[in-house]
Amino acid sequence: MADEQAQRRGPGRPRQEHVTRAVLDAVVDLVAESGMGALTMDAVAARAGVSKPAMYRRWSTKQDLVIAAAESRIGPLEVPDMGDFRAELRAVLMARMEAYRQPGIDRLLAGVIGASAEVGAVREAFSAYSARVMSETRHVLERGVVRGDVRPDVQAADAATLVAAAMVFRMVAEQRLPDEALVESVVDLIGRAIGAPSL
Amino acid sequence: MADEQAQRRGPGRPRQEHVTRAVLDAVVDLVAESGMGALTMDAVAARAGVSKPAMYRRWSTKQDLVIAAAESRIGPLEVPDMGDFRAELRAVLMARMEAYRQPGIDRLLAGVIGASAEVGAVREAFSAYSARVMSETRHVLERGVVRGDVRPDVQAADAATLVAAAMVFRMVAEQRLPDEALVESVVDLIGRAIGAPSL
Predict the structure, then answer these.
(1) Residue-wise pLDDT tens digits, A32-90
(2) Which residues is B150 bridged to in the sheet?
């Protein structure tokens, strides 16, 4: 499909997109199969069929590379105004849940967390990624306050942490894939926690 | 202090406790200083001043060792009946928060998560540890249902995930140390989410 796009759009940028996609797919596949221990720049280059210089131009460290791979699967998200913050939170969480259930994503996320604690890792690189992942939840909460169905005194940053944390913890610490029942529980619990009292 | 105990109690078991403590302290120190990448059985044995066979008798893999080190700092917990599930949850979370703020614990937890996703890791070893860490929260929720201040229809497993997840996520994904303000937010949000309506 990337090749078709390249043909339609001509050379140049599409070729770069093709390289990016091939490299990030290779990272996801390698980590899914063999864990972070097997993830070397050489192995990724060989699997993706790209040169190491082409990789280093985009991602100078292994940490950059795994964060980019995670973001290719779990990236920014946009949910339209549905007139109800619970429905919007459910939409965010269902999209995440489906992404988390893809093969190898649990291992990739655990690997990103582990890599961010290694010497030489840039802490801000991962916290900035987390902020991008959480931004739509922040947006849903703020829209709810304006709309009036979210309590105006809610600590939005802490509530967003609670929303983002449950499925990730279920996956990496409890080692179970998050499912629709967990999404419904989180929507119900957060809904009661932050919903404005009905008039 | 371990030596004093050994003298008071005589040889045998106290000597074993001394070895255990020395090894787990060495693991925490090494990971805090140099990350999981620096954690080898040789480095731990040298730092702790114990023989490798003595280590392998207790922990046969690096994963066992880091889980034991984490559990030496973040272990099972018991909170007495305070007549109020919010106060009890606050006690659990304050104890965890203080443990999480010890030097190097953020890195150790991230390392445990990363190690559990490596090839050869035993998934159940980490999920069993998580279950031990979460067990007192489960207990507080169940006691609240019996007492009547927690809604009887609460999905206790999912609520416990939400309680446990927030501080860990704040630490390993947002890369900020959890603080008392986060504890209060979580107690407030979970309190509203699961509290029984007052009569």
Answers:
(1) 999 988 899 999 999 999 999 999 999 988 899 999 999 999 988 999 999 999 999 99
(2) B195
CA torsion B117-A55-A130-A74 (nearest 10°) is -70
User: Does A16 or B185 have the greater pLDDT score?
Assistant: B185
- ipTM over 0.95? The verdict is no
Q: Which of B34, B131, B169 shows the shortest C-beta gap to A164? A: B169
Whole-prediction pTM: 0.91
- B97 and B179 Cβ atoms separated by less than 8 Å: yes
| CA-based radius of gyration for chain A | 19
Look up residue B3 and give its two tokens: 């030596």
| Beta-carbon separation of B117 and A111 below 8 A | yes
Mean pLDDT of the region B64-69: 95
Distance from CA of A30 to the nearest CA of B (A): 11
A98 vs A91: CA distance, rounded Å: 11
- A127:B175 CB<8 A: yes
Query: What pLDDT does B17 receive?
Result: 86
Residues, chain A: 199
Domains plus CATH for chain A? 2-60 (1.10.10.60), 74-194 (1.10.357.10)
Give me the phi and psi of B34, to 5 degrees please. Answer: -135, 5
CA of A95 vs chain B CAs: smallest distance (Å)? 19
The DSSP result for A96-110, as a single string, is: HHHHHTSTTHHHHHH
Nearest CA in chain B to A37: B118
How wide is the angle at C-alpha A175 spanned by C-alphas A172 and A177, nearest 5°? 95
Residue B73, helix vs strand vs coil: helix
Token pair 């979210």 is found at A150
Containing H/E element for A111?
helix A105-115
